[in-house]
UniProtKB/TrEMBL annotation:
This is protein-serine/threonine phosphatase. The keyword Mitochondrion does not apply. GO terms for molecular function: metal ion binding; protein serine/threonine phosphatase activity. Residues 332-365 are annotated as: Disordered. Belongs to the PP2C family. InterPro entries: PP2C, PP2C_BS, PPM-type-like_dom_sf, PPM-type_phosphatase-like_dom. It comes from Lolium multiflorum (Italian ryegrass).
Amino acid sequence: MKNVWEQNFAVSAISREPVVSKTTHTGENDRLEYAVSSMQGYRVNMEDAHATIGDLDVSTATSFFGVYDGHGGPAVSMFCARHLHVEVRNHPGFKDNLPTAVASAFVRMDQMMITEEGLRELSRYGCPSRKLTVKDKLMSCACLKVKKHTGPIDVGSTACVALIRGDQIIVGNAGDCRCVLSRNGQAIILTTDHKPSVPAEKQRIENAGRSVTVTGGASRIDNGIAVSRSIGDMRYKTNSRLTPAQQALTSSPEIRLEKITDDTEFLVMACDGVWDVVLNQGLIEIIRGNMKSGKDLGKICEAILDMCVEPPQPSVDNMTILLVRFKHNAQAPARSKAKEQSGNDDDLQGKRKGKAAAAPHRRSF
C-alpha cells in the first residue's frame, strides 16, 4: 500500500525533485514595503501568477496586491495578473466604492475571457501539460474558435487580492488562497477557504443543480473541482437562469474590510501550496521574528518557500507568498469613502503544521 507521498509522485503532474529556483520581486513607497516570491516546487509546470502595484492610483494613494493560483494550466492566472487590477482601477466606483469595484473586477474576468480578444490572449499563455486529446487541449485552453464563445472550460484560477488605501485594507477572495494580517503578533484571518464542504457554499452548489461529493479525501463539485469559487472553469458555470453569483462555481469574491491601526504590522497572502504545511499563527511568528532581526522581506519569503518543500512533509504544489509591511511613521492619506462591508530561520521547523494536519496533498481538478 503506497503512502500519500508515493501516491502523489505516481501522478504525472508531480516530480520527484522540486524546482527550487524562485522569482522574487520587492518594492516600497512612503506607506508600505512589499515582497513576493514564487517557486514551482514539485509540480511539473508553474501555474501561479501574481501582481504587485505599489501605486495603482496616485491621487487616492491606492496600492494593489494579488495572488493567483492557477489550475489546469497557467492561462487564467496569467490573464488575471494582467487584467484584474486594471478593471478595479477602471470601475466607476473606484474612488468612492472600492469594495464594489473589486467585486465587479472578479466577475469581469470571466466576461472578458469569453470574448474573441480574451480567447486569443488565453491561447498565447499555453495549454495544460497533462495528457489530453488535441480537441480537449484546444477547448481547455480556449484556443478553439467556436460560434458560441465558451471560454476556458477546465482551466481556472483562485484569486486573492488586497488593496491598501488610507487606513483601510480591502480584501477580495475567491477560492483557497489566504490572506492573514498580523496585529501585535496575532494572526487575523481575512479570508475564507472556499471549499464545497463549507455549508453556505454547498447550499449554493446544490441550488444550482450540482452535487457535492467526496473523492480522494476532498469535497468536490460533481467529483471534479475541489474549490467552490474560482475564475474560469466555465464547465461549472453553465446555468443560464442563474446570475454569476448563483452559479455552482462562482467567480464572485468574498469582500472584507479591515482597519489599519497602530498595532497592524503586516499582511501575508499565499496560495494553498504554502498554507498546506504552515499554520496561520506559525507563519506570522516566523515572519515577525525575521523582521525584528532586520532580514530583507524578499529573503524572508524565499526562506519560507524553501521550508515548505523540506521533508518529511513537503508541499507538492506550486507556491507563491506575498508580504506587505506597513510603515507607521508615514502620514496616512485621508480615509477612503469606500463603504464598509464585512467581512528567526532557526524557528522555522517549530512553526510547521503537525504531521496529521500537514499530510501533503495535491489538488486535483
